[in-house]
User: What shape does this take?
Amino acid sequence: MFNFSRQEIILACVFLVLGLLLVFFPYEKNSGQEVVPLETEAENPYSLEEGKEKKLMVHVSGAVISPGVYSFREGERIVDALKAAGGASWKANLDGVNLAAPLVDGMQVVIPQKKEQEGSVAREDNNGLININRANSQELQELPNIGPSRAEAIIDFREKQGRFEGPEDLLEISGIGEKTLERLREHVRFY
Assistant: This one.
């Protein structure tokens, strides 16, 4: 049936003998030394925790650029959470927040917004011009061709992109073209 050469039979026997030796007489590197089993995690829950940093999950919300849930190392503070969320938005009121307080796992950090004032600072001492970088939605709607949706688009742009540096920045707002920009120039200021 099978036709094996003499060398193949001898080689197979050698491997068989070596296999049997390894099964019945396993090689022990630490012969003569007592082998102590490692403790399992259940027996010693602190053994694996040493040297391993504890992660904190913190929800950052309110007047920040990128609200969300972030992971921190133990010992980090609210100021670190504010940085992780992209920083405070221009509406943020940081006076009521202890930025030096330590973070705790599962906590929510809420950055409050400044309260709208009755007398707006968007028109202060500017001959009736509206400061495009400080005006609220209602004030922006007083401008020509600016309705509620464009006013919100202007505010959203300020929160995400930062201040408007000049009139040309308004062209970034959907629905504001050259004609609308020309009408706005005499009613707004940027500083």
In short: The CA atoms of residues 4 and 10 lie 10 Å apart. Residues 130-189 form a domain with the DNA polymerase; domain 1 fold (CATH 1.10.150.320).
